[in-house]
Amino acid sequence: MTRAADTPQAAPVCNVDLRREFEAVDIAPVLEQLDRELIGLAPVKTRIREIASLLLVERIRQKMGLATTFPTLHMSFSGNPGTGKTTVALRMAGILHRLGFVRRGHVISVTRDDLVGQYIGHTAPKTKEVLKKAMGGVLFIDEAYYLYRPENERDYGQEAIEILLQIMESQREDLVVILAGYADRMETFFQSNPGFRSRIAHHIDFPDYSESELLSIADLMLEGQNYRFTPEARAAFETYIAARKTQALFANARSIRNALDRIRLRQANRLVSRLDRVLTSDDVMAIEAVDVLASRVFAKRAEDREMLP
Amino acid sequence: MRVTQGCFSFLPDLTDEQISAQVQYCLEKGWAVNIEFTDDPHPRNTYWEMWGLPMFDLRDAAGVMRELADCRRVYGDRYIRLCGFDASHGWESVRISFIVNRPKQEPGFRLDRQEGAGRNTRYSTRSYAADRPEGERYET
User: pTM to 2 decimals?
Assistant: First the structure.
């Protein structure tokens, strides 16, 4: 690496056509796709645009010979389950790859089990193995706070954290680490591991989806699977979302996806129950109100009402 | 005497950048890269010791280069080579192997001649470095 210092660098350019530069890196399609396919999440999208702009400028500064250090790109995504953290991480890898800040643009998604070993001396090779695989791309650590278990001071998680921190600092140009998890627990995790907080440049909060956003997400999911709601079914699903949201274990878009899977199941069952007829493609695509209304969520809500005095 | 073997043996020693490019080539071909080291330079010494496990499923050479840096820190005074193993059916063997590190002083080899019966002569080569016990061969 000392060799690079000896050889004269390419003469820095003075003028850069911003538009040409923007088109050359080809991130506009990725950002548009992000806008189109991700419903809601306005603060996340603005933050990603900001980061993309910053990196574009950083790239130009590198060309002009003004950049002094490689920017820190490690991020933390916090938000409730099903708010699209993993999806955004995948997109983020694409953006970073196009801007040339990671060389390969792949994402390695891991949890505590992949990093922390089961006996003494098992953790370091395991963590290093994962880090080696993630080199040149993005390492996505889901539910990162499980790495740190304050109640057990001999927990091997601490060892994994130390190796991670070391690599995050020394190989910033080879690897981008994204930590993800629920907001409150991430907060305590960062408080007990101040090393992480200082090494992470971008903290992004993922807000919960509103009911109308969840409905658009459902439309988009169905469209992707070549299904569609009839108008009555769509109205029924709207009430379904409102009811489901108040119940326990609601996981935003993930709950919607599971609900749609069950609705498809019921639709198929309804179609098969009457064998003596000819189906059109419209019949197979349409989801009727009965498919939605048969859900347990409605039954539970009725039950709750009866329970009320 | 400069010991040469494997790929690129006729070239000057590769720079880190060049090594990294070769490793990337191996990874893109889907070969597992492993690091091996020894302090016995005899050409018939084919089985070198391994540094860690072979590296599968890597996407970028940076991971291998880091391991190589670690290996050099510990065994910087020995020979280190990188091998790319192709596990695909029909090959199942090392496809590329090249030296990436060598001792500063390479004392070379002595040729022994043993007179046999009649005019028969047996030859053997012997590294001067191997006169010293393993682990102390290239210490200065």
Answer: 0.80
